[in-house]
């Protein structure tokens, strides 16, 4: 009887001595200041978009998905999935694998970048838990929310790029009109 009491006492004190892990609030992809959190400094995103646009067509949904996966691959954050931390390269490979798995196993093709963020990046079908991103300061954020911020930033950059391109074309056509004499006039 005394042995059982001692074992129970040791178990009780052993469990009580372990401090519970502090729970970290899973923010919704927004900083404490209210700014959207992206995989890198948001001021550099337009440069990254321009660079990627030189080698890939970002006007297609497939191009946008490739861009988002490339953003994951080249990021310096840690990804957390099913109680395991992953580096950027492994996370990008997993996202590509998961997208192909949806196509082969579930016969569901991911047609748009928004589908990619909503279905692939949302979380684990196995555990039902959302994926997370761990920033360099140790803060954790919902991966789907961060990727939605990335997609929103991409869409904004593409709109700005399209607007600047149409302005450039208007200037070029105005210059053409000004330097080309009308057909019925002799120069």
Characterization of the model:
By secondary structure, this protein is α+β, with helices and mostly antiparallel strands. The protein has a domain at 37-161. 55% of the residues lie in helices and 7% in strands. It has a four-stranded antiparallel sheet with strand order 2-1-3-4. A hairpin with a 5-residue loop joins strand 3 and strand 4. It starts with a helix and ends in an 8-residue tail after the last helix. Mean pLDDT is 81; it is low at 5-25.
Put the structure in a nutshell.
This protein has 187 residues and is α+β, with helices and mostly antiparallel strands. It has 6 helices and 4 strands.
Task: List the main descriptive attributes of the protein structure presented here.
four-stranded antiparallel beta sheet; 4 strands; globular; 187 residues; alpha+beta
Low-confidence spans: 5-25
> How widely separated are the two ends?
116 Å
Strand arrangement across the biggest beta sheet: 2-1-3-4
Oligomer: single chain
Mean pLDDT across the residues is 81
How much of the sequence is in beta strands? 5-15%
How many distinct beta strands?
A: 4
> Given the structure, what is the number of helices?
6
Give the fraction of residues assigned to helices: 55-70%
Taken from the alpha-carbon principal axes, the silhouette is: globular
User: From the helix content, strand content and strand pairing, which structural class follows?
Assistant: alpha+beta
Secondary-structure element order, N to C = HHHEEHHEEH
The biggest beta sheet is recorded as:
4 strands, antiparallel
State Rg.
25 Å
């Amino acid at each position: 009887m005394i042995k059982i009491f001692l074992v129970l006492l040791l178990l009780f004190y052993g469990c009580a001595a372990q401090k519970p892990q502090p729970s970290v609030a899973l923010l919704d992809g927004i900083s404490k200041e209210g700014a959207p959190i992206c995989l890198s400094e948001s001021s550099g995103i337009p440069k990254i978009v321009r660079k990627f646009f030189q080698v890939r067509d970002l006007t297609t949904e497939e191009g946008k998905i490739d861009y988002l996966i490339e953003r994951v691959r080249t990021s310096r954050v840690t990804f957390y999935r099913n109680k395991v931390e992953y580096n950027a390269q492994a996370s990008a490979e997993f996202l590509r694998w998961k997208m192909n798995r949806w196509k082969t196993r579930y016969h569901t093709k991911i047609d748009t970048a928004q589908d990619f963020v909503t279905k692939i990046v949302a979380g684990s079908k196995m555990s039902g838990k959302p994926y997370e991103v761990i920033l360099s300061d140790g803060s954790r954020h919902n991966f789907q929310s961060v990727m939605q911020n990335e997609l929103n930033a991409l869409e904004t950059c593409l709109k700005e790029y399209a607007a600047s391109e149409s302005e450039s074309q208007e200037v070029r056509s105005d210059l053409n009109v000004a330097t080309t004499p009308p057909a019925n006039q002799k120069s």
